[in-house]
């Protein structure tokens, strides 16, 4: 999979920008505020239809324009012979057709809990080869794997961040996973309501089994798919770990499943009623990254954490490739800051097995394909 | 306020390290994993008695040692003529005196909700000029302001992150604030319990007023102190904004108070009973940083966000100086990564008004006082 060209209109600070990318690796070099990350944001939106950093879609529209467009030419399929022209357009829409009724400042910053941010309403339209499509049909045609410094949360953040990460990978490659995940989440909500009712009104015990069966079924499906991914990442990370520093880095990824079985449900029943909440299952899963037998989150330096994260992103690329038979494009936002020279060089030597777009304030290598912003 | 020397024993990767700092600015330069951040962590622990990155105090002890010591020589008072020798020691302690009873791996990674991380128990002892003190009497003798890349959460994170930030500044300089904050939090908890009781059992209405009076009183005290801080930061940030780039950066900090009054309590009463939770008050406060009239969190580049964050840290230094008549030491962890050359230079020219310790993978200036790790 390759992205040839991208054309941005009124996207963030780029009023009108056309870029061509190298088939191997492109460096986007520019000063702070030049709009380097915005280009990766646009590429990633073409891939997922969502921004990884905007709170509202309308945030990407260059003020005072009314719409913003991203166009991209993609090559895919065997030997990259299939061409796709992808287009995504975001337009502002006044809330309820009457924008001036609202006090904008109040809406944006309100501390009044009942006020919603209606001001940010926008519409999104997508086309494939000039033909309008649904968002669902558009998403995932262009496959990409993104790394931003904020991703460090996967390592240092809460288990919820890690579950979000696993899910985001699996959502991309498996529509069944998404459906199963939705079923699980709905059943979980219902069972928690039931637990509350049981505690407060002492009735509803007879309905527990029904929800527990659904949770057990969908939960173990989720566990199976997550295990498959995490086993793959663990195996591959070990290989990358060796490349990173001639055997010094031993990376191990351990999946910490919160098992969901009839026995565990009986074991936790009383606690769950007291807590009015389901205490076991995939929504309590976590995984641990160890590095030379220590928890990377607690004992790794930030530079080490970043290096391992890039390795993880490359494993993710391999996983998507294995499952979809397409090599995603790697989007690396400022991976070099915080890294010393040795690690910069190792990383640069690792990336060129797929098309890669990298932003940086300075060029870390010679003879590279460079876009200066 | 100046830190002359620091001596680390079994602290993280430093088994035995003695350093002397320059009176103005010291650069700590080293490769990834050399232990640069660990030195700032130690300095900050001498200041606050807590680590800003360890989940458990015992994490800082170099394995397999049983204790870790930080010693620091501080100069303070008028013309920095007072000397203080500060010492902080952390020792491992077996849980319930019997460490081997526990399955360590199970304890550390357990997905079983009832298991606590008892394995990480440790004790902390502090001395001032050789005399044992309470943690309370030790904390704050050495005043410091820390910047780490993770602080970007103050800008891009949730309102809770920003409240935590404001509180951490005020806790440092005002013991009344801490007490008022505790009173507020306790009353809030009680009122939320009461709201739950009212919803479920339709009784307890008569007790609402009691808790609301406490919340109103302590809440408005909190608002007053937070306003004082945020007004100060806003005023100072405007000045630093100009230095940052000859008038280009217009920084504005807007405090978004969630007011707490009798009227608002009546207005929200029904919603609060339905939600079983108090919806107004300082625990819903937020502040917004604008930058050239845009929200920095949504429209600033990461480089811009980092630059403004450093400016914010310098305002914080000024605030502590104004309130305590002591100039805190500035600890800057890797502020240069992600910044272009121009911004690096501007920042370096801004910092030397107080003692500053900076870590970096590369030296960003010539003729600096450097510690090579």
Give a structural overview:
The structure is a homodimer of 373-residue chains. The first copy, chain A, has 373 residues and is an alpha/beta fold. The first copy, chain A, folds into two domains: 1-24 and 31-143, Rossmann fold (3-Layer(aba) Sandwich), CATH 3.40.50; 148-325, Glutathione S-transferase Yfyf (Class Pi), Chain A, domain 2, CATH 1.20.1050. Helices cover 42% and strands 23% of the residues of chain A. Chain A has eleven helices and 14 strands. Chain A has helices spanning 36-48, 104-109, 135-138, 153-156, 159-173, 175-201, 208-244, 262-275, 296-299, 302-324, 341-350, and strands spanning 2-11, 14-20, 25-29, 67-76, 82-92, 122-128, 131-133, 144-147, 251-256, 286-291, 294-295, 329-333, 356-360, 369-372. In chain A, the strands form three sheets. The first copy, chain A, has a six-stranded antiparallel beta sheet. A five-stranded parallel beta sheet of chain A has the order 8-12-13-3-14, with helices on both faces. A three-stranded antiparallel beta sheet of chain A has the order 9-10-11. The first copy, chain A, starts with a strand and ends with a strand. The interface between A and B is large, with 54 and 53 residues.
Quick rundown:
The first copy, chain A, has 373 residues and is α/β, with parallel strands linked by helices. The first copy, chain A, has 11 helices and 14 strands.
What attributes does this structure have?
373 residues; alpha/beta; Rossmann fold; Glutathione S-transferase Yfyf (Class Pi), Chain A, domain 2; six-stranded antiparallel beta sheet; five-stranded parallel beta sheet; 23% strand; globular; DNA-binding_RecF (chains A, B); SOS response (chains A, B)
